[in-house]
Design goal:
Chain lengths: ~500, ~550
């Protein structure tokens, strides 16, 4: 029993509820509350990490909290193992930084924005922490519902269209997920994930395969793999950049977490192999990856380009995980982490730079490198990391992914990944090349950014720049010193590959 | 053999003979100079003394280094002695000899590389040829002879005697040392020099110029002897060196008296020479006869020795060449000495007033006549006793027993043939008074250098080259840019193509929203079928 787990969900939830109430008193308090909420969340997670660091290294870290002191079979249980902690920390850090960025970046309707953003992060942490499959469904629905207004937050035509599309896809995905939950409850009479995992093989094979297919369908829609990628680019590009970072950087990884949690720990990977679905996952992911990079080349919109690039990378990780080896998980988890930071950094810096242009089109970007060289340099370095240039972040993940594919004998997949890297080089260089053209700079543009002081001596713009640079530093350092992240990742892999441990921990055997 | 520390000097009988002859000739010229020169006589004597030491050193040294120094000294002293006539001539002579020295240094360095530390016989043919060319500028070998006639005719008469009588011989003395067994190049050049010198001597009217070209011709005989390479031929060369030394010195000293008497050097102007300068005309006639190789006269022996050791063809050539030799000798003899002998005598006998009688200062007269006497006496001794030279050299066993009647008859026949030719051509009286000087050569070289320099300048005019290349590059650059515009190529052929391809792919995959949603049941169905097949183990 650890109250901290509850705090991880409660802190953002209460902040989200408090914001409209405190707005009645004073608007100026909002930023303070937002800041306190986000940093409190991060501190709680870091506290858990520091307290249990020795356990993580020893690979017997597990925390649980019974809501209302109800035992697992009856009540909802919150659990946190190494895998969950890995994602929880990532979500916490990016949450804190994106909230900081938002304080500087968002200039309108901030009350609604923060409520929705905090609800999104509440749902994310809930999905990671929950031990109940229905509860997970609830959080996923909460995610869909709270992100849809954020997608349409700019109130443009494209934004609203993308929001509607996103909502339809999200609801359909959630509905299919819900059918799966119903089927599980119908079969086993329990919704606790550990109990489901323990008794899953008792279900008849037909129903079992149906359940697996339904959950796979739902997750493919949610992650945006090839046949259902249509919603992703539009949704990720037509919202504010901070929301793009949340969607493309964090939310997709969260669905990957759900994918891992469901298909390795609850259902077991054997059922996928038995049904021959692992092959479909691998090739679907690879097709999605290649198509994502190809789509990124043809687009003229920088944010769409980044979104398509996300499709490529997520597809690659998706197919890598299906290899079911420790190298594959190592590469997959490292690339999940590095793609989170890289994509967030790219979206955030692109969002800053796009403040100085007429639109998102490639033609509008000419000369953007001279507007703010520091930010553009960080954009450039992070895009190098995306291509997989060695000392940086993206290289490590790609290296281990390629290694995993080679170990599995999938040379064709390696070729596709390398072609993807090459295409990534092309489409990033295309934008960077344009950015250096036409030095005729309108200096009135330089002050387009809203620079009200947050408090004396510290402007909003400076906060935005600071957040981007922090992301840049994370990208560089996590690339150079990736070996220090070995312990938590290996512990997470241990959790993934030994699913009975989770069952034993939760059920107290 | 005397050996001096550090520099090896050696003396053998041949060296001693050469030194004796050289010193003797130098004494003659000194006496002559004491009469001829008007000012700065002491300086001349000092320079002459240095020259004396230098050529002695040159003859007796055994090392190339001292040889070089000695020859440089000889060059410097002779060019200084030339200052008594014209400064320009001296400078020109010095420049030419300096160029010769440069070639000589190159040859000596090459010899040193080949291992010839001391002066001695050289076996490599090409190295011998190199030395022939290197010493050619000093000794007026054919091809490098052009300076000789202007310098020897332009110099003061005693200096001409030194140069023509001895300095040009020093090179041939060196040839004797380094070419023991003959050299075809030297032989060939010798024959050419004989004919060329004689032919040139026949064309000029200036007495000293004729003597200078005669020197070239006689040097040809010496070179021919050394080039033939047998013992007798080399002995003949040595013989000829000595005879020519005496005779030419006497002739040049005598030329000063002719010049003083007639204020000109045109041989046609020498009227009543026998009456005016009886001794000089006798000595001149004797010397010329000695040089032309008339039978029993000294040169006949040396030429005979050389001819004796040659094969048939060169001998025939030499006989033909001796016709020309006789012709120019007879020409000098006739025009300078013999022409007015009879009419002059009649004239003198008929006239009461003796306009030809000269007032004679005895001492002056003696100093005038001494070199002529002293130079002629050795020739007379050789005439009487030809073997004297061999006995001085210590070669007693060679006796000149080849005064065959056939050779004498042939020689006489050729002489009379030459006289007949001379008569038929009416004494070869050319009106050739053309000025010979080295200026034309220097102007030619100057122009050549100037022209090559200008051509080179035009070729290597960096500014123009740069200009032209700049223009070329300027013109080529846009073309090249268009051709090699990689950015455009990349843009058009690759990136644009790729982007359009990707766009068409995107459009083909893109579906409208209604149809997008159909994918969900379709894919669901596909998965169901797939799983069904997997369960039935059909896959």
């Amino acid at each position: 029993m650890n109250i901290n787990l509850l705090l991880i969900i409660i802190i953002p939830l209460t902040t989200a509820i408090l914001i409209p109430l405190l707005d009645l008193i004073s608007i100026k308090i909002r930023k303070v509350i937002v800041f306190i909420g986000s940093i409190g969340e991060l501190l709680v997670i870091i506290m858990i990490l520091i307290e249990n660091y020795q356990k993580i290294i020893n690979k017997n870290f597990f925390l649980s909290y019974y809501l209302g002191a109800w035992e697992p079979h009856l009540g909802i249980v919150l659990t946190l193992d190494s895998l969950g902690l890995f994602f929880s920390i990532l979500i916490g850090i990016s949450f804190f930084l994106i909230v900081l960025y938002s304080i500087g970046f968002i200039g309108h309707h901030e009350g609604k924005y923060y409520v929705l953003l905090f609800l999104v992060f509440t749902a994310m942490q809930g999905v990671v922490l929950t031990g109940d499959i229905f509860n997970m469904y609830v959080f996923i629905e909460l995610l869909t519902v709270s992100t849809t207004p954020l997608v349409a937050f700019l109130r443009t035509k494209e934004g609203i269209e993308a929001g509607i599309k996103y909502l339809v896809y999200g609801i359909i995905g959630g509905l299919i997920f819900f059918i799966g939950v119903i089927l599980i409850y119908h079969s086993l009479g329990t919704l606790n994930m550990a109990e489901v995992a323990a008794n899953f093989n008792n279900i008849p094979l037909r129903i079992r395969s149906l359940i697996v297919i339904i959950f796979l369908m739902s997750l493919i829609i949610k992650i945006g793999i090839f046949p259902f990628h249509f919603w992703l680019a539009k949704a990720h590009s037509s919202c504010p950049s901070s929301i793009s970072a949340v969607l493309s950087g964090v939310l997709l990884k969260l669905y990957l977490y759900v994918f891992i949690r469901l298909f390795w720990i609850i259902f077991g990977f054997n059922i996928l192999e038995e049904l021959g679905l692992n092959v479909i996952i691998i090739y679907l992911g690879l097709i999605s990856s290649t198509l994502g990079h190809i789509f990124a080349i043809q687009t003229e919109d920088i944010k769409r380009m980044l979104a398509f690039s996300s499709i490529g990378h997520i597809g690659m990780i998706f197919s890598t995980l299906a290899l079911n080896t420790s190298t594959a998980f190592y590469g997959g988890l490292i690339h999940i982490m590095s793609h989170l930071f890289m994509k967030s950094a790219l979206f955030l810096s692109a969002g800053y730079l796009l403040r100085f242009t007429k639109g998102h089109n490639i033609k509008d970007l000419s000369g953007i490198a001279y507007v703010h060289p520091t930010i553009f340099t960080s954009f450039f370095i992070v895009s190098l990391a995306m291509m997989g240039i060695p000392p940086l972040n993206g290289f490590v993940g790609k290296w281990y992914i390629v290694k995993a594919f080679l170990e599995a004998g999938q040379v064709f997949a390696v070729v596709l990944i390398l072609i993807g890297s090459l295409l990534a080089l092309l489409y990033y260089i295309r934008f960077i090349n344009i950015a250096f053209k036409n030095i005729e700079l309108d200096f009135s543009v330089k002050y387009a950014f809203v620079t009200k002081p947050l408090f004396p001596g510290f402007h909003r713009e400076q906060l935005v720049i600071l957040v981007i640079l922090v992301f840049l530093v994370i990208v560089i350092f996590s690339g150079v010193f990736y070996m220090y992240l070995d312990e938590p990742i290996l512990a997470a892999i241990e959790d993934i590959l030994n699913s009975h441990r989770y069952i034993n921990f939760v059920l107290g055997r | 053999m005397i050996q001096i520390y550090l520099f090896k000097f050696s003396l053998n009988n041949l060296d001693i003979l050469f030194i004796i002859v050289g010193v003797f000739l130098n004494l003659l010229t000194l006496i002559s100079a004491s009469v001829y020169l008007k000012e700065r006589k002491l300086l001349f004597y000092i320079i002459n003394f240095v020259y004396l030491i230098a050529f002695i050193m040159l003859i007796i040294t055994k090392t190339w280094f001292v040889f070089l120094i000695a020859w440089e000294l000889v060059t410097i002293t002779t060019s200084l002695m030339l200052l008594w006539s014209k400064r320009k001539l001296s400078i020109q002579y010095f420049i030419l000899q300096f160029i010769g020295s440069a070639i000589l240094i190159f040859a000596i360095i090459t010899a040193g590389k080949m291992g010839y530390v001391n002066i001695g016989p050289i076996t490599e043919n090409w190295l011998q040829n190199l030395f022939i060319i290197a010493l050619g500028m000093k000794s007026a070998i054919f091809g490098l002879h052009f300076w000789l006639a202007p310098v020897h005719s332009g110099a003061p008469a005693p200096v001409s005697g030194i140069l023509s009588g001895w300095v040009v011989k020093l090179g041939f003395i060196t040839y004797i040392k380094i070419i023991p067994e003959g050299n075809n190049l030297l032989l060939f050049l010798g024959i050419i020099m004989i004919i060329y010198g004689a032919y040139k001597a026949l064309q000029f009217t200036d007495y000293k110029v004729i003597l200078a070209y005669s020197t070239i011709s006689n040097l040809g005989y010496i070179g021919l002897g050394i080039g033939a390479g047998t013992e007798l031929a080399i002995l003949g060369s040595i013989y000829h060196i000595i005879i020519h030394g005496f005779a030419k010195t006497v002739l040049f000293i005598g030329s000063a008296y002719w010049e003083k008497e007639y204020n000109t050097r045109e041989i046609y102007d020498f009227k009543y020479a026998y009456l005016r300068k009886p001794l000089n005309s006798i000595v001149t006639a004797f010397s010329i006869l000695s040089l032309m190789g008339f039978a029993f006269f000294p040169s006949y022996y040396s030429k005979y020795l050389i001819k004796h050791s040659l094969s048939v063809l060169p001998v025939v050539v030499l006989h033909i060449a001796s016709i020309i030799t006789y012709l120019y000798s007879i020409r000098i003899l006739y025009w300078a000495v013999v022409r007015d002998m009879y009419t002059g005598l009649i004239d003198r006998l008929n006239r009461k007033d003796n306009i030809y009688k000269l007032k004679i200062n005895f001492l002056m007269n003696f100093r005038h006549k001494l070199p002529l006497y002293a130079g002629t006496i050795p020739l007379i001794i050789i005439l009487v006793w030809p073997e004297i030279i061999f006995s001085i050299m210590g070669i007693a066993n060679i006796k000149l027993e080849f005064f065959g009647i056939k050779s004498i008859l042939l020689n006489t026949l050729i002489f009379f043939f030459a006289i007949a030719l001379f008569y038929l051509n009416k004494g070869f009286k050319f009106e050739n008074r053309r000025d010979i000087s080295l200026d034309s050569y220097f102007i030619f070289f100057y122009k050549l250098i100037n022209k090559t320099a200008s051509v080179l300048y035009r070729l290597l005019d960096t500014e123009r080259l740069f200009d032209a290349s700049y223009k070329l590059i300027n013109r080529m650059a846009p073309v090249l840019y268009k051709l090699l515009d990689t950015e455009k190529l990349f843009d058009v052929l690759f990136l644009r193509f790729l982007i359009n391809l990707c766009r068409s792919l995107y459009k083909s995959i893109y579906l409208s929203f209604q149809f997008q949603l159909i994918w969900i049941p379709l894919f669901f169905l596909f998965l169901l079928v797939w799983v069904r097949l997997a369960i039935e183990n059909i896959l």
